[in-house]
Amino acid sequence: MDVAATVNRLFAEAGAQSQGQAAAVAEPTQRFAVVADTRSNSLLARSGDPSRLARLRKFVAILDSPTNAGGNIHVVYLKNAEAVKLAEILRAIYQGEAGSTTGTGAATTPTAQRTSLGGNAGMTTPSNQSPLQSGGTSGLGAASSFSINQAQNTPSAPGIIQADASTNSIIITAPDAIYNNLRAALDKLDVRRAQVYVEALIAEVGANKAAEFGIQWQDLNGLSKNTAQPFGGTNFGGAGQNIIGIAQNPGTAGQGLNVGIIKGQVNVPGVGQILNLGFLVRALQTDSSSNILATPTLLTLDNEEAVILIGQNVPFITGQYALSGGATTPTPFQTVERHDVGVTLRVKPQISEGGTVRLQIYQEVSSIEDATNPAGVITNKRAVESTILVDDGRIVVIGGLIQDTVLDGVQKVPVLGDIPVLGSLFRYKTRSHVKTNLMVFLRPTLVRNSQRAEEYTGERYDYILGEQQKAKPAHDVVLPDVVSPTLPPRPETPALQIEVKPYNNEGRK
Questions:
Q1: Which of 204, 374, 447, 503 would give a disulfide with 292, using CB separation of 3.0 to 4.6 Å?
Q2: How far is CA 171 from the centre of its chain?
Q3: Residue 100 pLDDT
Q4: Closest by CA position to 239, among listed 256, 255, 253, 258
């Protein structure tokens, strides 16, 4: 292509000077055009003057000759691709071409070109000659010895193609023919890769309803007398519900309605002084609901995995050693492992030509349920791992849980609790209804240019800026004003500047 540009400029200027600008354009025989064909590395020329074609052929032959300058080291600065990874791909391309060429057993042009890579300037072979012709000898023995020496002098592919990670550039040490082939592949690979903006929507709606009602009674008056006296009663439920526990400590009474009859105190052997609580009625009804929405988002390159984690790193005790008896030499210790607890999203997208996105997804939502359990921390965990296909901008559900639990419990005295109406004095009833709706949705959006990325960035930036303004402390007469942290205003995207200049027959002004 460089030769084509030089020839076009030289011959066009020469024709214009000899014939005049107007005549050169008007005369068909003076028209001259040279086009480069990169596929075959050749020039295509068209002209009505055979003499000009002859001069062109001689001129191209002079240009298409090896130079004495050692300019076979080329440095290519990449714009989008990663130099280290791209260098590995180019080495694989070169090694594949070299292997297929030497496998035929013939000394062809690429073999001759690889000979010049060994650094021996005296063995440079033109592209239109075989090694036998360049060596000046004939015969099978000479060709064999040349091939053996050539194979020994051929450098390995890693020495031809190197990557400089600091400048993100590729260094190619090769003649022009090999360099042009590698450069053509390099230009096609060094393109701007599309990105994927992934939104994960985790919606959880729960409802919890519970109710309890019961009557308990006891007669402890006979415990304070020395004569034989009967005593007894009913007690149901656990802590905060049982009449005996409340009689020992009224502060442990559970939430809800607690109505009882107390007559002084009574001394219970083995327990101590407690309230003489003879009658207790408990009633409680709870109704709670939850609405949780988590929207972790990620922006990642095509075929690149991205991870976002929002949560805590919680220690879990896995083992411990403590002293026993009178041992004093060993030191007590515990072994601890840490695990991430929170919202985790791991995504690896792959974009197809039709705009469909293939996603490898791992989504996890975990939380601490109980940190006081002697056996260790209890956590809740909801996770989904899948591989799906989604169109650009579409929402798809990747997992969910719909759980509906109803518990109905009755504690009663046998026989007496089954008596109509009167049996209510000997029963304690509990009922609960727990309903959980959990759904995980996903929406990938392709970001193929910087303008699309600016839209999503600006939208999120403005949203956070608005939330910060809402959270700003209001002015108070007593308390001092404090400066609330706030993002700076989002800079405007510079518009495209187009300069229009007048044009006339004399040229541009």
A1: 204
A2: 31
A3: 56
A4: 253
Residues paired with 158 in a beta bridge: none
Please report the pLDDT score of residue 38 as a whole number: 75
What does the alpha-carbon distance between residue 358 and residue 352 come to, in Å, rounded to a whole number? Answer: 8
Q: Exposed, middle or buried by CB within 10 Å (0-12, 13-18, 19+), for 220? A: buried
Cα–Cα dist 255/284, whole Å: 7
65: helix, strand or coil? coil
pTM of structure? 0.60
**pLDDT value of residue 124:** 38
What are the residues whose beta carbons fall under 8 Å from the beta carbon of 370, sequence distance 6 or more?
Answer: 377, 378
Q: How many CB atoms lie within 10 A of CB 238?
A: 8
SS3 279: strand
Amino acid at 367: S
pLDDT average per 10 residues of sequence, the chain (509 residues): 75 57 51 78 81 83 67 87 91 74 44 37 40 39 38 49 92 86 89 90 90 88 68 84 86 88 79 82 90 88 91 85 68 83 91 88 88 83 90 89 90 89 89 91 90 85 88 88 85 57 46
Judge contact between 86 and 190, C-beta under 8 A. Answer: yes
Distances (CA, A) of 20 to 12, 53, 56: 11, 20, 20
Are 362 and 440 within 8 A, CB to CB? Answer: no
**Burial (Cβ within 10 Å: 0-12, 13-18, ≥19) of residue 437:** middle
To the nearest 10°, report the CA torsion of 264, 268, 273, 275: -40
Phi, psi angle pair for 495, to nearest 5°: -75, 155
8 A C-beta contact, residue 90 and residue 186 = yes
Three-class HEC string of 381-416:
EEEEEEEEEEECCCCEEEEEEEEEEEEEEEEECCCH
Helix (H, G, I), strand (E, B) or coil at 287: strand
Beta-bridged to residue 171, according to DSSP, are: 75, 162
Under DSSP, the state recorded for 423 is G
Two structure tokens written together for 456: 């999503």
Please count the residues of the chain. Answer: 509
Structure tokens at 67: 């130079």
Residue 464's H or E segment, with its range, is helix 450-470
Site of tokens 């209001």? 474
